[in-house]
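User: Structure please.
Assistant: Input sequence and predicted structure:
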Amino acid sequence: MQDYQIRVIEEKKVLDDKIRSLSAFIEHSAIFKNLSFTEQQQLLHQETVMLEYSQILGERISAFV
């Protein structure tokens, strides 16, 4: 495996951990529920974009094999 491939795999692992944390915050945090509508929407959008990014990284990783 090439060095850049290892970096992509690590990047996806880190990103997926951040997605899990953000998703838990959105779903279970009283703080999230008390944020303004705009902030809530921004965080939901961030989560969506992060999920898309993770999917792209996953597709790249699948192509490594």
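The helical segments are 3-28, 30-34, 37-64.
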